[in-house]
Structures are given as structure tokens and as C-alpha cells.
Specification:
The chain is of the alpha/beta class and 389 residues long. The chain has 14 helices and eleven strands. The protein has helices at 3-27, 33-39, 56-65, 77-80, 90-101, 119-122, 128-145, 204-209, 213-225, 243-258, 278-290, 314-332, 351-355, 374-385, and strands at 43-48, 68-71, 105-112, 152-157, 230-235, 264-267, 270-271, 294-302, 304-305, 337-342, 360-361. The strands form two sheets. It has an eight-stranded parallel barrel with strand order 1-2-3-4-5-6-8-10, surrounded by six helices. The protein has a two-stranded antiparallel sheet with strand order 9-11. Strand 1, helix 3 (56-65) and strand 2 form a beta-alpha-beta unit. Helix 7 (128-145) runs parallel beside helix 9, helix 11 runs parallel beside helix 12 (314-332) and helix 12 packs parallel to helix 14. The longest helix is centred in the N-terminal third of the chain and has 25 residues, at 3-27. The N and C termini lie far apart (58 Å). The structure holds (3S,4R)-3-hydroxy-2-oxopiperidin-4-yl beta-D-xylopyranoside (XIL). (3S,4R)-3-hydroxy-2-oxopiperidin-4-yl beta-D-xylopyranoside binds at residues 72-73, 157, 236, 268, 299, 351. (3S,4R)-3-hydroxy-2-oxopiperidin-4-yl beta-D-xylopyranoside (XIL) binds next to loops.
């Protein structure tokens, strides 16, 4: 072969190899959130709507990116327990089945809340002990149905008040008529009315704990129904150190000291106005994990102002990405912070629109067409850099 031909052949070979490599790189999919999360043993979840699972883009994005799901509404009382004697597990089962097929964990939300309760319950005029029976049965049947399938439950959701931070919210469970303290919870059997009636309680400890005694009972019932399930107290607007999170901290510390079966605290993390006091959030995660409970971010979204078409500005999308990054970094800084879950994952389906009369939206990681947003990239970066934690 003449030397000129050899040189040309060599060049062709080098060029072909270079093109091959480039194509291989372009074809190689970037690591998904769930792949990146593996290194830091982080759960990365999303709230889901069962009926959307039949949409190909919805289910493929969900299965590719997340290793945990939580039914957004399907396990709430009005759906799962629509009549006094009727339970409807069909929607919850659909989510559980999807998760099993895609190797995902399922969080359960929620056993005790003041919203999305059926009329038969809220208008039933039940007395205290009757209500306690209804709640115990509900918790045991629902947790029992998902025993071994749902690994963690929000046992009680949003029990502390917004208007009077630090105090318990007045709800059907707490004092309308509320479920009273019993012997097993360490106090009197009481009558109707709230369990904060300290004159009935036997000891100083009971008096101190009486106000959240009903929450304690719910945790004990859930634990009886599935001793393996992790049990969480879940709350809104308690992400940072504030009066509400102080009160929850005191309750959780007390529960831990007395052996009440609580495993974790969920901070919802619905971020409004692009404002998140990340330093304070980090301090809060630190103090809760130091109690020996795990922390999970359970309902994160970062709502943005949107135009009539539902679009946010590019600048706001960048600011949103920074919020996601900073919060993820705060969680990743503590081994006890074990999950980051968003409340939905595509802007196509998010509660923020209807909740804000469509003035806000674009709060999640993927846009309406399932395209990743800057927030998605930011979360990926955080997971990548937190992999050695
Ligand atoms: C919201 C759901 O996203 C909506 O679909 C539903 O209409 C109302 O509830 N805190 C919670 C969640 O704990 O259960 C709420 O979910 C959002 C606020």
C-alpha cells in the first residue's frame, strides 16, 4: 500500500471512531433521578393520580425518574371509605400495583386529617367513644389492607394550627367531638369533648400530654395494624424553625421518650413566593433527625406566577431551580433526611392551579409536555453532588 493511501485510511478510521463515540454519547441516556438517588440512598418520590397512569408519557416518566410514589388523594377518607360500611381500595391498589411492577416504594397518605372526609363522617353527629371506634377501625382496616405493601404512612396530617401556631387545630378528631383519652393511652376514659381536660388525667405526664393524646392513639393503632410500617407525623408550614415546628418537636420528643411508635416527620414543603428560609429549614431538619426520627420531604412544589396559558418566566424558572437545589442540598446534608418527594411531577397535573385560581402554577420538575425543567436539572445536580453522604 502506498504511504498516501495508508494516511488516508488511517484518517478515515480515526474519523469513524470519533463519530462512533459521539453517537454513543448522544445515545447514552443521562442518569435519571432515581439512578442518581441510589448512591445517596435517597428516596425520590412523586404524588400520583391513578387515572393518569394510563397515559404513556405519565407512567413512563414516573417509572423512569422516581423510586417512590404516594397516592395524592386515593387513600383519603372520602375516596377509600365513602360510606360507613364501604371501603374502596381500587384506586390505591392501582398505585400499589404500578409501584410493584416498577420497583418503587409506596408512601401512604393519610389516615387522619381534617379535610377530604366524607359527609357520613363529618355530619354523623357521633359521640366521642363512637368516633374513637370508627377511627380505630378505619386505621386498622386501611393499614391492614396495605400491610407489607405500603412501607410508610402519614398517620396524622396537619394537626397543628395555622392561626394559633403551636396549638392544635380544632377538628372532628381533636375536639368536635374529638376522641378522648383512654386507660391504654395512660389517662381517664373521659367523656365527650377534648382530651385536653387535664383535671381528668391521672398524672403530671398525662396532663402535659393530654392535648395530643388523640394523635398518640392513632400511632398506636397504626402500629398494631402493621408493626413493620414506618409511621410519620406530616405537617405544612413547619419546615423551618418556628412555633409550629417547635410544638411538633416537643410532641415527637415526648413520643420518643415514652416509646410511642413514631418513626419520622414529614415536612410538606409547598414553597410559595419563591421564599424558602433554607438556613432555618436545615436547622430544623438537623434537630428532628437528632431526635432519632427520620425526616422526609413529602409534598414539595415551588409555585410560580403564571400567565393565562400557564407559563412562568424563564427568570422565575431559574429561581425555582435554585430553590429545589437548595432544599435538596439541605436534606442531603443529613443522613436522617431520607426522602424528597414532589406533589405531582408534571405541570400538567398539579393542585397549585386550582388552589390558586390559576394565578400560580408551573410548580414541578417537568412541564406540561413532560419536558424536564431547570428545576429537574438542579435536583439532578444536587443528587450527584450529595452521592457521598
Ligand atoms: C391536595 C390534592 O393535591 C388535591 O388534589 C386535593 O383536591 C386537595 O388536597 N396538603 C396535603 C395534601 O397534605 O393532601 C393536599 O393535597 C395538599 C396540601
Amino acid at each position: 500500500m502506498r504511504s498516501g493511501t495508508l494516511v488516508v485510511t488511517l484518517w478515515i478510521t480515526i474519523l469513524a471512531t470519533a463519530i462512533d463515540c459521539k453517537e454513543a454519547n448522544a445515545a447514552a441516556p443521562e442518569a435519571s433521578l432515581r439512578e442518581l438517588a441510589r448512591a445517596s440512598e435517597m428516596l425520590i418520590g412523586a404524588a400520583v393520580r391513578p387515572w393518569a397512569l394510563s397515559e404513556a408519557a405519565y407512567s413512563s416518566t414516573l417509572a423512569r425518574e422516581f423510586n417512590m410514589v404516594e397516592p395524592e388523594d386515593a387513600l383519603k377518607w372520602e375516596t377509600i371509605h365513602p360510606q360507613a360500611q364501604t371501603y374502596d381500595f381500587s384506586q390505591g391498589d392501582q398505585v400499589v400495583d404500578f409501584a410493584r411492577r416498577h420497583g418503587m416504594k409506596v408512601r401512604g397518605h393519610t389516615l387522619v386529617w381534617h379535610q377530604q372526609n366524607p359527609k357520613w363522617l363529618t355530619e354523623g353527629k357521633f359521640g366521642s367513644s363512637e368516633l374513637a371506634e370508627i377511627l380505630e377501625k378505619h386505621i386498622k382496616i386501611v393499614v391492614g389492607h396495605y400491610r407489607g405493601k405500603i412501607f410508610a404512612w402519614d398517620v396524622v396530617n396537619e394537626a397543628f394550627d395555622e392561626v394559633h401556631p403551636g396549638e392544635l387545630r380544632s377538628t372532628i378528631w381533636r375536639d368536635q367531638p374529638g376522641i378522648s383519652l383512654t386507660e391504654e393511652a395512660g389517662g381517664s376514659t373521659g367523656g365527650p369533648g377534648n382530651s385536653g381536660d387535664s383535671s381528668r388525667s391521672g398524672s403530671a405526664a398525662n396532663r402535659k400530654n393530654a392535648s395530643y393524646a388523640y394523635i398518640e392513639r392513632c400511632f398506636r393503632w397504626a402500629h398494631e395494624a402493621d408493626p413493620q410500617a414506618l409511621l410519620f407525623y406530616n405537617e405544612a408550614e413547619a419546615e423551618a424553625v418556628n412555633r409550629k415546628s417547635d410544638a411538633i418537636y416537643a410532641m415527637v420528643r415526648d413520643f420518643r421518650e415514652r416509646g410511642v411508635p413514631i418513626d419520622g416527620v414529614g415536612f410538606q414543603m409547598h414553597v410559595a413566593n419563591l421564599h424558602a428560609d433554607v438556613g432555618s429549614i436545615s436547622d430544623n431538619i438537623k434537630r428532628f433527625t437528632a431526635l432519632g426520627v427520620q425526616v422526609q420531604i413529602t409534598e414539595m412544589d415551588v409555585a410560580l406566577p403564571v400567565d393565562a396559558a400557564g407559563n412562568a418566566t424563564p427568570e422565575d424558572l431559574q429561581r425555582q431551580a435554585d430553590v429545589y437545589r437548595q432544599i435538596a442540598n439541605a436534606c442531603l446534608s443529613y443522613r436522617g433526611c431520607m426522602a424528597i418527594q414532589t406533589w405531582g411531577f408534571t405541570d400538567k397535573y398539579s393542585w397549585i392551579g386550582s388552589h390558586s385560581k390559576h394565578k400560580q402554577g408551573a410548580a414541578l420538575l417537568f412541564d406540561k409536555d413532560y419536558r424536564p425543567k431547570p428545576a429537574y436539572e438542579a435536583l439532578r445536580e444536587a443528587l450527584r453532588s450529595g452521592s457521598g453522604r
